[in-house]
């Protein structure tokens, strides 16, 4: 299938926060309550249309256990975006996001990150208020959203939101798709990929 761009995303966070469930819901529209623990990495993909561009999203779901940290760090490289996931019903998973964020930012420069408070269906067991997620995201200059893979709430919106931000970066010249480490690859389509005169000027270093 042809596409304009391929974006590589990573999904990071503590074990059990629902990273694999988010991947499965988004790529296959399924939910499995007793999902097996990820060992190393699992990869899924889906092609969507954002702002008249066909985007193939390649999602790398990484293992959250400490024993796999040294292995999964290598998968961060070459990513354009990251979903930093915690469980709203488990405070310890929220406490860990600082470390996950630090690692991601050390491994990848200019990484677009969205903070995801998953399992919003467990609101009756909530330990992390919406405002806590919003405040952390604001301080770290991240996007933020709460989701439920079980109820399919805001899963589509997560990927749409981060994809739009990356498209903006491409348009503004902050991301160069020809750079292999950018996490973005230019695809082959019959119509080609254009963002108009402004994009071409920025890419060439020209001014108005």
Overview of the molecule:
The protein has 208 residues and is an alpha/beta fold. Helices cover 34% and strands 24% of the residues. It has seven helices and seven strands; from the N terminus they run βαββαβααβαβαβα. It has helices spanning 19-28, 69-76, 91-95, 97-107, 130-140, 155-171, 197-204, and strands spanning 5-12, 41-50, 53-62, 81-87, 112-118, 143-146, 184-186. Strands 1, 2, 3, 4, 5, 6 and 7 form a seven-stranded mixed sheet that branches. A hairpin with a 2-residue loop joins β2 and β3 (53-62). The longest helix is centred in the C-terminal third of the chain and has 17 residues, at 155-171. The protein is globular.
Would you summarize the structure shown here?
With 208 residues, the chain is of the alpha/beta class.
List keywords for this structure.
alpha/beta; 208 residues; 7 helices; disordered C terminus
Write the layout of secondary structure elements.
Elements: E1 5-12, H1 19-28, E2 41-50, E3 53-62, H2 69-76, E4 81-87, H3 91-95, H4 97-107, E5 112-118, H5 130-140, E6 143-146, H6 155-171, E7 184-186, H7 197-204
Parallel strand pairs: 1-3, 1-4, 4-5, 5-6
Antiparallel strand pairs: 1-7, 2-3
């Amino acid at each position: 299938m042809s596409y304009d761009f391929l974006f590589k995303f990573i999904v990071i966070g503590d074990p059990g926060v629902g990273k694999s469930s988010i991947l499965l819901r988004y790529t296959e529209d399924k939910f499995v309550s007793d999902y097996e623990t990820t060992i190393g990495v699992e990869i899924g993909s889906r092609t969507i249309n954002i702002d008249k561009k066909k985007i193939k999203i390649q999602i790398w779901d990484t293992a959250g256990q400490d024993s796999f940290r040294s292995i999964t760090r290598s998968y961060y490289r070459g990513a354009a975006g990251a979903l930093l996931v915690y469980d709203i019903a488990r405070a310890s998973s929220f406490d860990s996001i600082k470390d996950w964020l630090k690692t991601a930012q050390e491994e990848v420069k200019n990484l677009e990150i969205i903070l995801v408070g998953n399992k919003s269906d467990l609101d009756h067991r909530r330990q992390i208020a919406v405002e806590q997620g919003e405040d952390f995201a604001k301080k770290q200059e991240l996007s933020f959203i709460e989701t439920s893979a079980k109820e399919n709430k805001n899963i589509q919106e997560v990927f749409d939101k981060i994809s739009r931000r990356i498209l903006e970066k491409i348009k503004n010249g902050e991301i160069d798709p020809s750079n292999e480490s950018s996490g973005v690859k230019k695809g082959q389509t019959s119509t080609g990929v254009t963002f108009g005169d402004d994009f071409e000027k920025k890419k060439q270093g020209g001014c108005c």
